[in-house]
Specification:
Largest sheet: 5 strands, antiparallel
Structural class: alpha+beta
Mean pLDDT: 94
Protein name: DUF1214 domain-containing protein
Shape: globular
Low-confidence stretches: none
Helix content: 10-25%
Order of helices and strands: HHEEEEEEEEHEEEEEEEEEHH
Organism: Actinoplanes sandaracinus
Distance between the termini: 39 Å
Number of strands: 17
Strand content: 25-35%
Radius of gyration: 21 Å
């Protein structure tokens, strides 16, 4: 059977899921199988989108193809490039908080974070008054995977732009029709992608998160394998249901600041139907210029609640993007573990939020994500 290598890879992938060290119960396993389904979808998509002669941008991750602690505020796109060809990237700048471009020297693996060959945001390209732009990536330059990120801060108001890539000498031409040999290779590649991505991001979390002291966050630091204009603060939590973490961070002046929670599968929690992430525009900033997030299972009755959604353990990440200066520890978070019942005494500007207001916040998230996915 032509598809046998891919079917075998799915079987191997299931073993990776069921034997993952953090699987301790039915919820962990159910989420693992959900993660596996998204990984299967993404692997097939990536194998068929590997078109270096006739490239196009595909969504690298989304609500149903999650990986790598995907940022709920970001639309990710990627295309593969070859060194001996020139490519034309055209687009129209949307109104998002950030638009960035990065060329990676290959892909992530369990033992390697790919080097960033170049990384920049739209401040370094010429944008016409109507928002249009064009970039040329010349032949002879070392290339790999071109990654584009559109980052939203105000989910309701900001809109994505338009993006297209073409190989310059193939514009107007067409690729050859598919062959059985080509399909055989693509199914084989899809299987390899599936196994690699599962191993890679479980290893990535082990390497960069789980070695840190629990219930702490690092000072801001450049994101491994990330953008030169991005810093992040990372950690992992382990909380009882009557405990909460207060994360206090300056609102600051970075064009984008966001926080999110992730599961032990190293993917975002449900950010559509639960408030498991917040941007600065979405969060409530206190009169002293600080944002105080509350991570807990129980509803603390505050606007900046980050819902654990039944996850006793998980990951936390803050990101600052579109920076024009280096960040220091003073720009980063302070962490305090408290009892949920003590929160009103530990939050200096405690302002309760009721159930109806909370439903309105969730409804706004659902509407904004639905609109963004159509963009």
């Amino acid at each position: 059977m032509l598809t046998r290598p891919f079917a075998d890879a799915i079987g191997e992938a299931e073993k990776i899921i069921t034997t993952a060290p953090h699987v301790h119960g039915e919820q962990d396993l159910a989420e693992g199988y959900d993660y596996l389904a998204g990984s299967i979808r993404a692997s097939v998509q990536m194998a068929w989108a590997y078109q270096r002669d006739f490239p196009y941008f595909i969504r690298s991750t989304g609500p149903y193809t999650k990986l790598g602690l995907d940022n709920p505020d970001t639309l990710y796109f990627h295309a593969w490039l070859r060194d001996d060809a020139e490519y034309v990237v055209t687009g129209v700048r949307g109104t998002t908080a950030d638009l960035s471009f990065q060329i990676l020297d290959g892909d992530y693996s369990p033992v390697r974070v790919p080097d960033s060959l170049t990384a920049f945001d739209d401040r370094e390209i010429e944008i016409a008054p109507d928002g249009s732009y064009e970039m040329r990536l010349g032949a002879g330059l070392k290339k790999g995977m071109l990654v584009v990120r559109e980052v939203f801060s105000d989910w309701a108001a900001e809109r994505p732009g338009m993006l297209r890539i073409q190989r310059a000498d193939r514009i107007g031409a067409a690729p050859p029709p598919p062959t059985v040999d080509a399909m055989t290779k693509r199914y084989g590649v899809a299987g390899k992608i599936l196994i690699s991505r599962l191993h890679t991001f479980l290893a990535f979390a082990e390497r960069f998160y789980l070695g840190l002291p629990v219930n702490t966050l690092t000072a801001p630091r450049p994101t491994p394998g990330g953008l030169s204009t991005q810093y992040s603060s990372v950690g992992h939590y382990d909380l009882d249901d009557d405990q909460a973490i207060i994360v206090t961070v300056p609102a600051g002046d970075a064009p984008y600041l966001g926080v999110q929670l992730g599961s032990m599968w190293y993917v975002s929690l449900d950010y559509i139907n639960h408030q498991t992430s917040l941007t600065r525009d979405q969060a409530r900033t206190d009169p002293d210029g600080m944002i105080r997030y509350v991570i807990s299972e129980r509803d603390p009755g505050v606007a900046n609640w980050l819902e654990r959604t039944g996850h006793r353990r998980g990951y936390v990440q803050l990101r600052w993007q579109r920076l024009s200066r280096e960040l220091t520890a003073d720009d980063g978070p302070r962490v305090e573990i408290v009892a949920v019942d003590d929160l009103p005494k530990r939050l200096p500007y405690h302002t309760p939020i009721g159930p109806e207001a909370w439903r309105e916040r969730i409804a706004a998230r659902q509407a904004a994500v639905a609109a963004r996915m159509l963009g």
